[in-house]
């Protein structure tokens, strides 16, 4: 039913399939692995993780969707967070965000 509703609105469902998403603490912060997922999944995963973390925490998001290098910094600005790094290594985009209040 959901899929049919998306089709009626126009365009195919763009939710990512394949790849796993996991989050967990890493040295100096928290990491969300959104590799293999397409827009808007990396931003949504980052938003969920950010809600569970205190202000000042560092969130690192790994994604293979090229749009993540633009979408994640835009999300961070809208939410009052600071992007401390936006890098691309091979096919992986790595965006590091310091969470604001």
TrEMBL record:
<keyword id="KW-0808">Transferase</keyword>
<comment type="similarity">
    <text>Belongs to the sulfur carrier protein TusA family.</text>
</comment>
<dbReference type="InterPro" id="IPR001455">
    <property type="entry name" value="TusA-like"/>
</dbReference>
<feature type="compositionally biased region" description="Basic residues">
    <location>
        <begin position="1"/>
        <end position="11"/>
    </location>
</feature>
<feature type="region of interest" description="Disordered">
    <location>
        <begin position="1"/>
        <end position="27"/>
    </location>
</feature>
<dbReference type="InterPro" id="IPR036868">
    <property type="entry name" value="TusA-like_sf"/>
</dbReference>
<feature type="domain" description="UPF0033">
    <location>
        <begin position="32"/>
        <end position="56"/>
    </location>
</feature>
<dbReference type="GO" id="GO:0016740">
    <property type="term" value="F:transferase activity"/>
</dbReference>
<feature type="compositionally biased region" description="Gly residues">
    <location>
        <begin position="16"/>
        <end position="27"/>
    </location>
</feature>
<dbReference type="Pfam" id="PF01206">
    <property type="entry name" value="TusA"/>
</dbReference>
<protein>
    <submittedName>
        <fullName>Sulfurtransferase TusA family protein</fullName>
    </submittedName>
</protein>
């Amino acid at each position: 039913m959901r899929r049919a509703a998306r089709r009626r609105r126009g365009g195919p469902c763009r939710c990512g399939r394949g790849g796993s998403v996991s989050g967990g603490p890493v040295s100096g912060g928290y990491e969300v692995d959104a590799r293999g997922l397409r827009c808007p999944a990396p931003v949504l995963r980052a938003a969920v993780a950010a809600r569970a973390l205190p202000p000042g925490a560092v969130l690192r998001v790994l994604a293979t969707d090229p749009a993540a290098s633009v979408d994640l910094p835009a999300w961070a600005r809208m939410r009052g967070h600071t992007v401390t790094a936006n890098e691309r290594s091979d096919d992986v985009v790595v965006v590091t965000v310091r969470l604001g209040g």
